[in-house]
Amino acid sequence: MLTRLGEEVLATKKPTRTFLSTSEGDCVEFYDVVVKLKATVATVASRMRAAGDMEETGDRAWSWMAGAPTALAPVGEALGMLEREGSRWIVRANSGPRLARMLDRIEAIVGERPKEVSRAMTAPWKDEPNVARTKAEADETMVISNRPVPVESPEEARVTAAELTARSLRDSLDREIAAVGGVPRRRVATEEGRAAVEAWLRGLELRGQPTEGTGGRMLDLDGLRRELGLPTVVGDAGRSGS
After folding, report:
1. E strand or H helix at 19, and its extent?
2. Statement to judge: residues 110 and 159 lie in one domain
3. Does 226 fall in a domain?
4. pTM value?
C-alpha cells in the first residue's frame, strides 16, 4: 500500500535529472579493463611501491593519488586503480579520460604499455532514468569524488563498501531529495511524505547489487527505516520472493 501510494505521488512530479561529474567535469562511467603486462608480478609491485603517487590499498592493489585534497576528499582523490585478481591485471577508473591517464601512468611507472585484453563499462546514465549523459541535459550536477580505502581481504572490502554506502545514505536523510519532494527526515511527518520516502528506500534496495560469492545480500535499508520511524520490511514477500 505504502509503495503504491508513493509511486502515485512520484508520478505527479517532474523528475530531476542529475549529471554525475568527476572533479574534472567529465561524465562518470565505471571502467574495468583487463590488461596484460610482460613484467613479473613482483616487478610491477616493486615499481608501484616505489612510485610516490601510488597508494597500496590491498594485496597487489594500488590507487593513483593525484590532485590536491578537497572538501570531498580530504586525503586526496584516487584517479584510477591497478589490481591483481587471480592471474589477471585489472585497471579501473570512473571516467574515460581518467582511464586513459591511468594507462599512461602505469606505462611511466612499469616501463611498458599495458596491453588491453577486454573492457567493461557501466554507465549510470544508461541504467538510471534520472541520470543525464551530459551536463546540458541535466537540471543539476553532482560531483563524485573517489578516495582509496585500504582493506586486508575481499570480505573486509565488502563490509567496508557496505559501511560507506550506509553512511552516505544516512547523510542523505537530511538533504533535499527530489524523489521524495524534500528532506526525508522532514517528509516522514505526513502520510504522503512517509509513502514517498518508503518508495524511495524500496527503489534503492531494488537497484542494489548483491555481493559476489556465498552470503551475498541485497541492500538492506531497514536501519534507516527504524531511524525514520517507518515499518521495517525484512522477511516480507518482496524480500523472500514468495
Report:
1. strand 18-21
2. no
3. yes
4. 0.58
